[in-house]
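step=encode ok
step=design start
structure_in=
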């Protein structure tokens, strides 16, 4: 596991605990995994939590061949530019490793080697667009919990590193051991859904020129109104075609998609409160029926309203959407 100062401790400890538990589950056999924490500086590292971590080695120590190289992330990884020696070490280690990848924002560090170019990867949902912008040759999948693309394996935010490690355990020693590890660590063997339920991507912000900002405020405060392109264009005093083109250019989405995102975000808040029957939630958010809410919810969040309520509602005893 490669780390830098300011590393998020769980990015390191989570995957290593999964591998360590796999060793315990294989008791009586030779340990499957032997792990080392390698840093680009000497001495204890101060983690993002303030905890100190003592790596086993630095990149200047005599190199051992790496089987699986994982690069841990940190809250500052987006803005971290690695020095030439660190990039060279990561490049050489990845080139000879059986597989390599990253946890959370560690993708920003590993991407500086060019080893992720052309690959399908993921990272924490909050910085996925920044990763794609900074490294346009990557094929970023912002909703994935983890992604395997050949020798490359990348995980989303923090605890997703454990999901990735568990998948690697299954690959290495089989499903039964991996399932035992999951049971022992009280984690999903295969976590349902993706990252979208954890994000607030559906929470639209007012932006663009003043006419569009007025339209966005109107949408947010009149969810049950007619929010068709024709109606919104009429309020803005322009043709529907011009309004749709202007909206897409300024905000990067169609008016219909924007309306759906605002309505879905309102539904999310109602579901989290645990109040209201399915039909009431749909009606209060401007959907014609429960099926319309369900379809929009799946597009924007990636799970059904029923599943979302089960995970996040304050009172899950309310009626569901099944």
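sequence_out=
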């Amino acid at each position: 596991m490669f780390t830098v100062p300011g590393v998020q401790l769980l990015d390191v400890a989570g995957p290593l605990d999964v591998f360590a538990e796999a060793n315990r589950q294989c008791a009586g056999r030779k340990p499957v995994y032997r792990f080392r924490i390698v840093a680009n500086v000497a001495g204890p590292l101060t983690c993002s939590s303030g905890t100190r971590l003592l790596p086993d080695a630095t990149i200047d120590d005599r190199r051992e061949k790496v089987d699986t190289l994982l690069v841990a992330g940190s809250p500052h990884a987006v803005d971290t530019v690695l020095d030439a020696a660190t990039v060279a070490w990561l490049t050489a280690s990845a080139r000879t490793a059986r597989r390599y990848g990253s946890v959370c924002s560690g993708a920003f560090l590993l991407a500086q080697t060019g080893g992720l170019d052309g690959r399908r990867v993921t990272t924490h949902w909050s910085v996925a667009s920044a990763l794609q912008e900074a490294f346009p040759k990557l094929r970023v999948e912002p909703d994935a919990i983890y992604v395997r693309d050949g020798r490359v394996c990348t995980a989303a935010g923090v605890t997703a590193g454990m999901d990735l490690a568990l998948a690697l355990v299954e690959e290495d020693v089989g499903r039964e051991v991996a399932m035992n590890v999951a049971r022992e660590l009280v984690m999903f063997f295969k976590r349902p859904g993706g990252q979208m339920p954890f994000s607030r991507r559906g929470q639209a912000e007012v932006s663009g020129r003043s006419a569009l900002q007025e339209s966005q405020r109107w949408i947010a405060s009149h969810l049950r109104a007619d929010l068709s392109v024709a109606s919104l264009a009429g309020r803005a005093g322009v043709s529907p075609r011009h309004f749709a083109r202007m909206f897409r250019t300024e905000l990067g989405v169609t008016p219909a998609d924007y309306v759906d995102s605002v309505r879905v975000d309102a539904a999310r808040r109602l579901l989290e409160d645990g109040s209201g029957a399915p039909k009431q939630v749909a009606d209060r958010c401007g959907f014609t029926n429960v099926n319309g809410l369900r379809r929009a919810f799946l597009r924007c969040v990636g799970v059904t309203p029923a599943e979302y309520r089960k995970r996040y509602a304050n009172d899950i005893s309310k009626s569901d959407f099944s």
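step=design ok
step=annotate ok -> The chain is about 45% helix and 10% strand.
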